[in-house]
Amino acid sequence: MGEVWAAVDARMARRVAVKLLSSGGGGNPQALLREARVAGALNHPGVVTVHDLGHEPDGTVFVVMELVAGRDLARVLREDGRVTVRDAVDWSGQCAHALVAAHEAGIVHRDLKPANVLLTPAGTIKVLDFGIARYTAATTRSSQVVGTPAYIAPERFGGQPGDARVDLYALGCILYELISGQPPFTAPDPMALMYAHLHQDPAPLGAHRADLPPGVEPLVAELLAKDPTHRPATAREVHQRLHALTGPAERPDRSSVVPDPTAGPGNGAGAGVSPYEALAAWNLDAAAPADTLIHHTGPGHERDTRLHEPRPPRGLSRRGAVLLALGTATAAGTALAVRFRGSDADDESSPRKRWEFTTGGEITTAPVAVDNTVYVAGQDGNLYAVDAASGARRWVYRTGGKRLTDVDVTDGIVYVQSNPLEAGNQAGTLHAVETRNGTAVWSVPFMSYGGAPTVVDDVCYTGGAVTENGAGRTGYTGRYHALDARTGAERWRFEADGGFYDRPAVVNGVVYLGCLDGNVYALDAATGRQRWAFRTGSAVQNTLTVDGAVYAASYDANVYAIDAASGTMRWAYGTGGPAGSLAVEGDILVVDSGKYVHAVNRAPGTRRWTWAAPDFVGPATLANGLVYIGSRDGRLYGIEITAGIKEWAFKTRGSIVSAPAVTREGIYVTSRDKRLYAIAHQ
């Protein structure tokens, strides 16, 4: 929602951070100024100090704060993974102590998350951005709930601002993530995440860690209570209970985390070095995290090794020579200047890009390549057909909606679902479009939104959810539909307590699909009648069938092998975090889970290898002996499937959250940078 600059206050000769925030498209910048004044009045060592504030003629608001050396907890988790239980409890206790000062001053944060909690080199915690969530809510027109979905308390999804206990819920999410390495809930889209916060219980912490001291798990469960009245009453109570779990302890020296910008180029304190020179000499980029092979147990191997070391710091990029003068920023005349460093270098081992195609919006859907054409659904509401050889556009079909789903291409027809701008406010629409020229075959409006169509034996299967508000009902009901693929006429529908976002597996007249209610359902393909249901511990993201078994990935951190005929479990494999999408090649089953890619020996359900990416990964495609998988770090990785060795990485300009398409001619992958990329085989 803005930018943060490392800077120097020229008058006071001190390091500061300057946050620049848009006025929210016409909102009142005075709202943030009022909030910042209140937050600036807080006098607590665990709260980042606000030095100054103001706004520019264009409405941009700036807040000048102390610059804290160190890393935010989101970066700690991203680079280091889960931390020791003692550190997790200690840091959360410090955070709770900062909340005591804020809450007793009448200030509720409302957007507490790891990225807003800073860890200093001394091991102390500082919380920032008090008041900004309320400012954003007041100035953002498009949403009633402002915050980060993974940490939002259930009561806020009803549009209520919530009291101080929303911060305690968020603190429980942070403590859970520090201990387990994963947030308590993850989901493929905001609606699914909302459902999890409202209706599901996270996997017990004891399932992630065996070294939990007594008292930790019950406290986390209380903090994550759905009903705010069941949470601890105050932040002071939480701080006291966390402090009792650790007791006094000498904090470790973490001075190696980030160099002190005031230090000189040598080992000394840098006496006589001006603040400008010191800041210019400070490399603001941290070394990229190494890719790590966590547990390779292939034939004849058992090792734990680095694939490559972090690259040494680079010199100044083309931006590094820029000296940005923010000028006279306030009525008091605070002059600010900053040098910054960066790098635009791609990975050393990268396949060749053949072409790229730009759409009008983010792309979070998977491309489909059929007959020398690549079909992709953009979040601008358009379905594109792109020549696979040249990247030229063949046609575009405008759905009139937004938030398009993944597409399916069968017998000369492309199927895609467009969803309403606001969930539940209007019907979504299922479209059938000619592959030859992009003209509509038929379109069917219906209230289920979110699911992706799949066509098998002239039947189009698609699902989603229906919002049910009013008349004493809240939440949403899952619906799954079977329609005639040629006409769009509905054959049957099936309802459950959770949404359907899974593509089904249809084999021998049975439809197998997962649901957010935690069940895997087996339905009669002709009638939609339920044959059996297998219950997991949380939402099911994906199912597939091979050789008489149904494999299901669940957010309860397990992959299940279920007998297709009886619905009984054959085995369960623990992924350590919410299991995402499944793919299979031969006897190897691949599943994504957070930052990890797991390869499982399919028949016995045992681990083959686990590979850690620098950031969260998405669904995989298996072909040519490789696992093709994208990551939130903007890279598509090629991983050798039998041993889990990274072969190459291709860098895009945005996050990759969908599976790539792989053909003999090349690889096609979409990115949230609005582009479809065509890549040559390495």
UniProtKB/TrEMBL annotation:
Family annotation (InterPro entries): Kinase-like_dom_sf (IPR011009), PQQ_b-propeller_rpt (IPR018391), PQQ_rpt_dom (IPR002372), Prot_kinase_dom (IPR000719), Quinoprotein_ADH-like_sf (IPR011047), Ser/Thr_kinase_AS (IPR008271), WD40/YVTN_repeat-like_dom_sf (IPR015943)
Keywords, ordered alphabetically: ATP-binding, Kinase, Nucleotide-binding, Serine/threonine-protein kinase, Transferase
E.C. code: 2.7.11.1
Basic and acidic residues compositional bias, start-end: 299-312
Single GO MF annotation: ATP binding
Transferase among keywords: yes
Region entry Disordered, spans: 244-271, 292-316
Superkingdom, natural source: Bacteria
Protein kinase domain mapped to chain residues: 1-246
Name by which UniProt lists this protein: non-specific serine/threonine protein kinase
Species of origin: Embleya hyalina
Lineage, highest ranks first: Bacteria, Bacillati, Actinomycetota, Actinomycetes, Kitasatosporales
